[in-house]
Amino acid sequence: MRPFLLMLAFLGAFIIAAEPASARDKFLKSQGQQLHYREAGAYANSAEKRDIMVGVEVLAKAEQKRLLGGRPDKSIPLEVAISNNSRFRLYINAISLVDSARGNHLQILSLDDVARNVGPSGSGNKKSMRLSILRNNLTDKSLQAKVVLPGETIQGLVFVPKKKYRPGLEFHLDVQNLKRLVYLDITVPMGQ
Length: 192
Description:
- By secondary structure, this protein is α+β, with helices and mostly antiparallel strands.
- It contains five helices and nine strands.
- The chain has one domain (about 1-190).
- Helix 4 packs across helix 5.
């Protein structure tokens, strides 16, 4: 009986040691994760103009790790939702932050800068695989210039420089109505 228990313990240790590294890889785990769906009106900071609602919140630290596999040190991710309750198709032209006290626009960070900032440690093929997963995650989960259909809500992440972010900034969204070629600016005050 004793050799059987010893062999069973050895087999258990072998199975635990043989667990693939991919099961412990935080970047690989984050690959299939998506933003939790919410309408734009459910966000802490929201504004509506002509039946178009925009909601913005700073993404929580736990959500950053879940969605990206790590946390950016030099940027702050904003979770943004746009609900198109109008009858027209909309196109997102530009996204920026406006510092109303100083009157200047802060541009959002490029995904390449964010990937370098969150970037996995190590070297070789493993780092290249993790960086590739991170870049795909950033592309899939970021808010990009795209068409928003009537009745549709889209969500995504926008990254702003941490050293320039402070409470009191305004999220600025330029939208184009595709039927009438009318441009609309929506400003959301950031209270947090």
